[in-house]
Amino acid sequence: MRAAVLHEIGQDKLEVLDDVEAVGFGPGRVRIRVRATGLCHSDLSAMSGVLPQPGPFVPGHEGAGEVVEVGEGVRNLKAGDRVVVCWLPACGACPACKRGQTELCLAGFMNAGTPNFKRPAGDVFGFAGTGTFTEEVVVDAGCAVPIPDDVPFDIAALIGCGVTTGLGAALNTADVEAGSSVAVIGCGGVGISAIQGARLKGAAEIVAVDPVASRRESALKFGATRAVSPDELAGAKQEVTAGEGFDYVFEVVGRSATARTAYENTRRGGTLVIVGAGAMDDFLQLNMFELFFDEKRILPSMYGGGDVLRSYERTIALWRAGRIDLAGLITHRVPLADINEALDQMRAGTALRTCIEI
Description:
Elements: E1 3-5, E2 15-17, E3 21-22, E4 29-38, H1 41-48, E5 57-58, E6 62-70, E7 82-85, H2 95-98, H3 107-111, E8 117-119, E9 122-126, E10 136-140, E11 144-146, H4 153-159, H5 162-174, E12 181-185, H6 189-200, E13 205-209, H7 213-221, E14 226-228, H8 233-241, E15 246-251, H9 256-264, E16 266-274, H10 288-294, E17 297-300, H11 308-320, E18 330-335, H12 339-348, E19 353-357
Parallel strand pairs: 5-9, 12-13, 12-15, 13-14, 15-16, 16-17, 18-19
Antiparallel strand pairs: 1-2, 3-8, 4-6, 4-10, 4-19, 6-7, 7-11, 8-9
Helix pairs in contact: 5-6, 5-11
């Protein structure tokens, strides 16, 4: 079968090969025919080495498709079911799951160390224990979440990561208060989803911050009340909050420099939400006096900060009701053979989400 493979960490191009085989099928596992997958910035971060991932590997973790085959013991799925690929499944038995913090379950991360594929040249891993830039993938049954038949594969793929992460940051982690002021730094697919979440919660002012003009224009269509470049953020802070700072600031880039900017633009007693996934050697510096004196809440948001399955259901309900726009997030479409074109679009900032049709 075909799959896009990164041979070595640090390379910036993928090679689409036709000699890849999905492995690991057996009890408790399912084989999925991938129909659509989104390109998330985390895929690029894994390729560059910012996020830890053994190689060679097949990127992709934001996918949807059909179940082809189910292993022994799988009760809730059957061949033909439409599913979203969940890269962070909950085991239901670990301390985090028992506390109701299923987004902190490490079961999915444990899968990342086991090869999902093989080639004549050797084993190939799947990013985040999945790897959806391929025609088929084998995953634990918990990674295959059934979806209704009326949800298109491209929409379902977005729910698998970016939309759930951004919406959840606003709805779950921050629990944005109606009438509040919000700034979102980084307005790709995840940032736009955070903007939609803040709008749903009734934020009065939502300022989108991004260096790319096309993304700023898109942010206004999705609910931002104004959109500015990073150089214009200080002016927006003055105009919107009289210089006090925003009630909520979402950092959706994953860099200490933008996190520091986000902190400085959060009002005293306000909330900074860290959504972007950054590098382990990139440190955010805060002095102990400001940490004490400003009393700003710093809230990391892992995969939307809530129960993943409930978040999927909520997102589908909101989409059906027309309360959120998911189709509009897909600004580009490419076949798997042109996957490197999708990478270039994301690096250039021209795409909110590129859908890879398989």
